[in-house]
Specification:
- By secondary structure, the chain is α+β, with helices and mostly antiparallel strands.
- It has a single domain (13-110), classed as Orthogonal Bundle (DNA Binding (I), subunit A), CATH 1.10.30.
- The chain is built from 2 helices and 7 strands, in the order E-E-H-E-E-H-E-E-E.
- The strands form 3 sheets. It has a 3-stranded antiparallel sheet with strand order 5-6-7, with no helix packed on it. Strands 1-2 form a two-stranded antiparallel ribbon. Strands 3-4 form a two-stranded antiparallel ribbon.
- A hairpin with a 5-residue loop joins strand 6 and strand 7.
- It is globular, with a radius of gyration of 15 Å.
Length: 123
């Protein structure tokens, strides 16, 4: 029986699923609230746009990369950086807990979450 089983992680907040897979394209209200707490605003280094003014984006694009709507693969960007992130010469690496971006000039920079519930890396 186990050889034919599908194992799926189910992350919940007050019994509401936070990982929706490919069943839903847009982030749920529960996911958005979790993103507000984790990301604390636009994830781009040096951007101080507050979370309430940001948009939810799939790290692995919904259409081109069949990206799931799972919390660890969603991120907040301000309108400017959301557009910038989708340039063909800009690439994201990792997931929301270990996210970095390669810029058009070839530099790669980390994009840490800055909200109160973000995972802080030990020095």
């Amino acid at each position: 029986m186990c050889t034919n089983a599908n194992i799926v992680r189910l992350l919940t907040s007050n019994s509401v699923p936070l990982d929706l897979g490919r069943t839903q394209r847009l982030a749920s209200d529960a996911q958005y609230k979790s993103l507000l707490a984790r990301d604390g605003g636009c994830r781009f280094e040096g951007c101080n746009m507050p979370a309430d003014w940001c948009q939810v984006d799939h790290i692995h694009e919904w259409t081109a990369q069949n990206g799931p709507t799972d919390l660890h693969l969603l991120v907040l960007w301000c309108v400017y950086h959301h557009s910038f992130r989708h340039r063909p010469d800009v690439h994201l690496h990792g997931d929301a807990n270990n996210l970095s971006i390669t810029l058009p000039d070839g530099r790669t920079m980390p994009l840490p979450a800055r909200g109160p519930t973000s995972q802080k890396r030990a020095a």
